[in-house]
Amino acid sequence: MTDQSPPALKEIFNLERLQHIADEMRAVYPAFDAKGFLKHATQDLAQLSVMQRMARVSESLHAVIPLDYAHTLKHLYALAPRLNSSFVSLFLPHFVASYGQDDFKRSMAALKYFTTFGSAEFAVRPFLLKDFEPTLAVMQQWSLDDNEHVRRLASEGSRPRLPWSFRLARVQADPRLCASILDNLKADNSLYVRKSVANHLNDITKDHPDWVLDVIESWSLDNPQTAWIARHALRSLIKQGNTRALTIMGAGARAEVKIQHLKVEPAVIRLGERINLSFTLQSMASTSQKLVVDYAIDYVKSAGHSAAKVFKLKTFTLGADERHTVLRSQHIRDMTTRKHYPGQHTVHVLVNGERLASSEFELLD
User: Which of 88, 157, 264, 271 is the most exposed place for a label (fewest CB within 10 A)?
Assistant: First the structure.
């Protein structure tokens, strides 16, 4: 049987890609020691994760280029548009973060340039640790830039809980520090930027939910871009049934609906199979009502207890006496963020934050 699994993410930095980097570097810098670079970059490559491989490329360039930081940057500027992957280009801002912290102005300009080819969100964070106020001042200017990649860097790089990076303790403790950045971007025309702003605000809801609610309540949600950010920024609070968040979304009132024909099929599955969820919402109201519909699965944990995970379904308006059928299929498989254990799993339907119906399926060992 042929293995149909996709290649591991770390294979983005495989031997072929490393050769590509070496070839393109030699094209812009003929004296480049490609052989030495490849020897350094491929050492124990199989044991390295994707982010370790990315860092290794940066370290290998530094090891074989006998130039100072400023002159090396000139060659990396020329290299950036020649790379054949935006993710791979992350090693360029990593080089800046690793070797340019004592050349602040030049490094900030480099991060602004390199982020347009991929993203410098991880690389700007060491500068926030070392020189918080001047770095944040630059990022506030970035939030007004004409380029969407630069504007996104202002928001994404200052997220308090950026995935794959360390937390920014100062921002986590006081979200007001980045308030001007978020305010500058609250109606951005770029979806790329709006997603970052929403994720930044969602990060803050983990520590300061009322602050986020106060901010969003002060915004005019008549602007569709701002309304989009608000909806996605409040997703965690909505999953928790937070009344203020639901009210902002127009779904603060208790839903006047009945759940009919709830089914979770098949009733018994094995790991790797799917469950199919279906039910019908029957309005019991005499007027239209805004509904936020989610579902939760009580996952069995290793110790035998259960813990709920909420999943988004849809937000819509249900007319008076109307019926609406909802269908959802979910793959039950292990992931890096969730391991499954055998046992009875309960599925709950949530409408405007309230559990209205439940069913079950059994996961076999």
Answer: 271
Per DSSP, the chain holds a count of helices (H) and strands (E) of: 16, 8
Homologous superfamily of 9-248: ARM repeat domains (1.25.40.290)
For 250-266, the pLDDT digits (tens) are 999 999 999 999 999 99
Nearest to 230 by CA among 187, 175, 193, 179: 187
| Domain 257-363: assigned CATH number | 2.60.40.10
Cβ neighbours of 223 (radius 10 Å): 13
The reply to whether omega before 209 is within 30° of 0 (cis) is no
In this model, does residue 53 exceed pLDDT 80? yes
The model's confidence at residue 2, banded by pLDDT at 50, 70 and 90, is very low
Confidence of residue 232 (pLDDT cuts 50, 70, 90): very high
Contact 278, 261 (CB under 8 A): yes
Same fold, 9-248 and 257-363: no
Domain ranges of the chain: 9-248, 257-363
38, 77 Cβ separation under 8 angstroms: no
CA distance 334 to 337: 8
